[in-house]
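Dissemination and training. As part of the outreach component of the grant, students in the summer workshop were shown how a complex can be specified as a set of sequence lines and then modelled as a single object. The example used during the hands-on session is reproduced here so that future cohorts can follow it. Participants entered these lines:
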Amino acid sequence: MNLKFQISNFKFFTYLFLFLLIFTGQAFAELTVDANHSHVKIDFFYHGSTMSVRGVSDPGVDLIIKLASPDGHEVLKQKGKVAGVLWMNVGTLKFENAPGVYFLHSTKKVEDILSSEEMERHSIGYPALAKHIQMSPVSNEEEKTKWFNEFVRFKENSRLYSTSTGKISLTEKDGKGNYYILTEWPYQVPPGTYTVTAYAVKDRKVVETAQTNITVEQVGVVKTLANMAKNNGVLYGIISIVAALGAGFGVGLIFRKGGGAH
Amino acid sequence: MYLYLPVALTSINILIPVGLGLVVGLLSGLFGVGGGFLMTPLLIMFGIPSTVAAATDSNQIVAASTSGTYAHWKVGNVDFKMGFHLLIGGFIGGLVGVQAIKILRAMGNADFVIKMTYVLMLGIVGIYMFIESLQSMKKSRKKNEVSLTESPVKESAVSRFLKSLPLQTHYEKSGVTHSAIIPIVFGGFVGILAAIMGVGGGFLMVPVMVYILRMPMHVVVGTSLFQILFNCIEVTFLQAYTNHNVDFILAVLLLLGSTIGAQVGAVFGRKLKGEQLKIILAVIVLVVTVKIIFELTLTPSLLLGQAGGH
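and obtained this result:
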């Protein structure tokens, strides 16, 4: 852990050094990133949230902000035509290295400000994800493209993937750039830890990155019930059944008293 | 007002499940069906994952069918003996059905077989019930008399065979005499199909009771709810225990509507004749059939969906 941290720190400073070497003489402000809700609490009345991300950047750079979950594994049902006319589930498709949640915001269209190598290196943009995510079973490139597009459509429909251009506001003050974006944090985003990464982009390259985390967690009754459903299925099932039986009888008795017997 | 559902992991306007519960509960009290064939797709439409929708619906049906059974029992419309015999068959049929699915899955193309079985069953039952109840409505109008029971049937070879079976039992509430083997076998048949299709099977059990067991429609509704209650207790427990898919909060919201709906349905149903109940149920079944046919033939908006379910 510690060694890894030191190595990544070392790497970071090497890049920083190289970066400074190349851009000596230019005004320079270290890129920072900060999210207003680093800890989203899902309680009984949770209906999504808003997330504002702000920070300081070097003026004159373009910015890309990515809010994403770690890469994961997903299995989805695949619909197809059977007997030429009938649409139904024809199998399952496995997705590897796929982030469950992926929100990307940029000052300009990502393809216009970044080279495709850089996009792929940092997993920025759907075309980069298309190369990064592995699917099976797919037999050729054409099929791969088709099902990747369907995957994005499915994710966007579930409000777990989205991209935007031009929503980041930039202001300049004392030779420093300030950026700010207010985005929606949909209630469909499941509990977990998410990474917010800000990328400063210049000359079709990422010149600087900064990171922070967002934790989404269930609290209170929601947490108690979710844990019980997962860890104590027997008790949870019995409580659910008894509550339903009780409610059914209770309402029956109320209606009897209400005088609707015959 | 919105509430967050801890197992479905989504937020929902509480008016939606309460309203859906009310409507489906009403149908339950009226016709003696669980209403899963309506509720599950509607819940999915409102963003509930399909697996959670099916499991939670069975929990909700426990409440609705308790309420409905109670309402029908008060006026003497539940045949407990018949209900138990159907349950024995249903239980065995469920076990066989689960194995049948495994075999279908191993053979591939299981979804095709399941969907086709579902559409055919719904279609046949809907058309048959529609035509039959239309005819008996005409007949009773001609005779100018109100009749809750079936019109008398001619003694056929089949019914002579059925009468020759052992374990002849008189079912007082229904006013029919059958070999106990008959409800067990047909309960089993419905159980197998219901397990394969992943539904409760009320829409099959009701016609079996009406046309094969020749029970009066009002006793059919009460007895069907009684046996649905036990099936759904079992399914809810298995879902909670093995799949962890029951959303308690969603179930509570649904049952707020469905328990009341079932009572209203039971009261309202007493004002309708058996034929009227049958023809309305037939129309609902046919509408669902048409909806499924559309779903099968129109290009879906998304070609990928959550895995799970059956």
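Chain B has a mean pLDDT of 86. Students were then asked to discuss how this feature might be tested experimentally.
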